[in-house]
Specification:
Blueprint (H helix, E strand, L loop, with lengths): L1 H14 L6 H9 L3 H9 L6 E5 L5 H8 L3 E5 L3 H13 L6 E4 L13 E7 L8 H10 E15 L4 H12 L12 H25 L2 E9 L3 E10 L6
Parallel strand pairs: 1-2, 1-4, 2-3, 4-5
Antiparallel strand pairs: 5-7, 6-7
Helix pairs in contact: 3-4
């Protein structure tokens, strides 16, 4: 319990007082793959109306604006809000992106107005019942919820093993990929990930979504993308 609180406090600092270091930290722990994982998940986004949850420093806001989408973006951290606003200003973006600081269940937005809700590397708040209920309400009848919950490096080497260990002890991956044979690791991951994704899909189904779990393989990494399609106006 103490270790969990320490990790949670570390993430709180990263998203708030130490938000200025977020880009460097994310680049370091992914060896430069972080932004590539984010861009990959955008391929599942359907515009033109997009809501991004936990927008962070705003890199994807710039990319989505470039693609011609109308974006509303939410982050509870005022520090992230300032970073995102500064990035938009540097890019000369004045229209087409709106920033909101709010908790999801209290979003002051009309129902059924977004084609896609996007969330990249969120904490576990994204799978809570009140969050999913609110996102279901905000999506159009044929809307989709796209979540990028994790990415990890593949291959071997001491740097990859250290990063893998850090992800493991902070709860960002389900099983440590080093110190096991390939067969042992495959069996452990298959069991853990099967139970984890089954639970996620059950939560999404209860909230009115049909979910697909997609594994995106890159040259030296792998990312998971959840694409959940709205089944109907369950909560309206």
């Amino acid at each position: 319990m103490l270790w969990k609180r320490i990790v949670e406090f570390g993430f709180y600092l990263l998203y708030n007082q130490l938000a200025w270091s977020y880009d460097a930290v994310s680049w370091g722990v992914s060896r430069g793959e972080w932004r590539k994982w984010q861009l990959t998940s955008l391929e599942f986004v359907k515009g033109p109306a997009v809501l991004e949850i936990a927008h962070g420093p705003g890199h994807m806001l710039v990319e989505m604006h470039r693609r011609g989408w109308q974006v509303v973006a939410l982050d509870l951290s005022s520090s992230m809000g300032r970073l995102a606003q500064a990035r938009l200003k540097r890019q000369g973006i004045k229209d087409g992106v709106s920033l909101i600081q709010s908790r999801i269940p209290m979003l002051p937005l009309q129902s059924a107005q977004f084609d896609t809700v996007l969330s990249q590397f969120p904490t576990d708040f994204i799978f809570k019942g009140d969050t999913l209920k609110a996102l279901h309400r905000l999506l159009k009848p044929a809307g989709r919820l796209v979540i990028l919950p994790e990415g990890h490096l593949t291959g071997s080497g001491w740097v990859t093993n250290v990063i893998d260990w850090l992800f493991y002890i902070t709860g960002q991956t389900l099983a440590k990929r080093s110190d096991k044979s390939s067969d042992e690791l495959d069996d452990e991951l298959e069991g853990l990930e099967g139970l984890f994704w089954e639970n996620v899909c059950d939560q999404l189904s209860t909230a009115g979504f049909d979910a697909e779990i997609k594994t995106i393989e890159r040259e030296r990494s792998c990312a998971t993308v959840i694409v959940a399609y709205k089944k109907g106006e369950m909560f309206v």
